[in-house]
Specification:
The radius of gyration is 21 Å and the shape is globular. It contains twelve helices and ten strands. It is an alpha+beta fold and 417 residues long. The longest helix has 38 residues.
Length: 417
Amino acid sequence: MSATPATPPPALRPYLTARHELLWDEADAFAAEHVAPRAARMEAAPGRVERKVADLMAARGWFAVTVPAAFGGLGAGHVAKTILVHRIARVSAAAAAILQASLIPVGALLHFASYEQKGRWLPGVADGSLLLSIAVTEPLAGGHIGGIETTAERAGNQWVITGSKIHIGNSHLAGAHLVIARTAKAGASTSQALTAFMVEADRPGLSVPGHRAGLGLHGFSAGRLDLDHVRVPDDNVVGEIGQGLSVAQSSSILYGRPNLAAVSLGIHEAVVATTTARLKTRPRYRGSLSGLPVLRDRIGAMEAGLRAGRILAYQSVHLLDQGLPCDADLINAKYLGHQWAAQSAQDAMELHGAHALDRDYVLQRLWRDIQHTYPPAGTGEVQRIRLADAAFDEDHIQWSERLAAEAAWARPDPTAA
């Protein structure tokens, strides 16, 4: 079997419907026609934010892949979302990052926004006129949600938000940001101290400094938001006041983790395909490098991780679509998916020798891009702590089960694309 199958491998068949397979083909065709020609340009101009690919994905309604048809979305569910992110990431992890980053705040709106708020924002996501970001991480607190210092203070029927957020995916593309801010005084319990707000990008006092390229994911913006006494009305509060921790944590587990698992999977497939193609065509001892047992041993290890990563990525979101408790499975898919892909990328660099150091060779991009799936939605240490909670039967909140019951009306339509 090819490392990058044109059709879904047999191991994934239990998780895919005929509609899923059509979407798989559609995503592959899109990536070949629209993403591949731009990938080299994105890499060559890391300081430029890629907007055209975002527009093309938005025109297909992919930013609303999990949004019910009632709000203009595809209503196709989490397996469909994983297919889109995974297949695009094979060609460009940066393009896939643009898609996955906006899907996280969409999930927060689906689970916590009122019906009126859904009707206000989700149709714009569905028709491509509105991209979203989620703004949690801060300069000093990092990923420690309890350390958030951005404040929101009530002023009549408005809230005044002040603070800074960093590493915000699609910071330069989003028309609105889901901002998590502190609404309780210092010393209050973190579980009730934070609140989620939708903040439109054109609100006075909100500024986004110029894009600065990162190590990888060139073309994708993950920048800073500065909020200087930004005023938003009461009806921009998403969920209840004091529910911001739940909004952030559930979105990270149900959307962030599986999305990043899909990005890692796409990169992993590209790494293995690139490496095997190189070894098969590189002559050595009347044959090719692919015939050397010592190299085949390392390729076998890469293939083992890749196959296992596929199963973890798709099985976990299949459970999520079925409304079954699977928080630990989603966490594990992100944790091991990244770990295996990063190891394969390092092995591939070594197997290529000096050729891997050529600036324009694709493997260098893949090695840099995989580094970006480690910190978001929790580092490896965070994932292992959450998995330990599950091992000790201490993971008392199962967001997959709790929110599935609340959003049963939004289950994927088996006839949807």
